[in-house]
Amino acid sequence: MNWVSLLGLDAWAARCRAALIETALAAEDRADLARLEWQQHRRSLQTLLIVGLVLGGLTVVVLLALTMAVMVQFWDTEHRITAGWLLALGWLVVWALALWRLIAAARQLSQPFELTRHELMTDWRALKEKL
């Protein structure tokens, strides 16, 4: 005699088995999503490091160029003044662009694993609704 069938537990066991399978598939999908987001986060960290190093180097160059422009300001010919200030302005523009890129990369890093957290929150809400 099959007590599971007799007590009506076979439907309950089938639902539990289906829920476990669905949970396993969802966990695998979330793990894949977390792995992909980690790769993206790592690339962003690398970009932040590279742009930070470039910005540091450009800062030194900008300061040297601005110092040179001030020194040139006091020389005798007018062409030296124009050349020095144009050089300083060019380095300042390059430095500002590098700073803008650094800030953009830092903002991108401020929300790591956003998709994974969203998916897990959605799963948690769905689970709470089923309970």
Automatic annotation (TrEMBL):
Keywords: Membrane, Transmembrane, Transmembrane helix. The chain crosses the membrane at residues 48-75, 81-103. Pfam families: Phage_holin_3_6 (PF07332). InterPro entries: Phage_holin_3_6. This is Phage holin family protein. It comes from Comamonas terrae. The lineage of its organism: Bacteria, Pseudomonadati, Pseudomonadota, Betaproteobacteria, Burkholderiales.
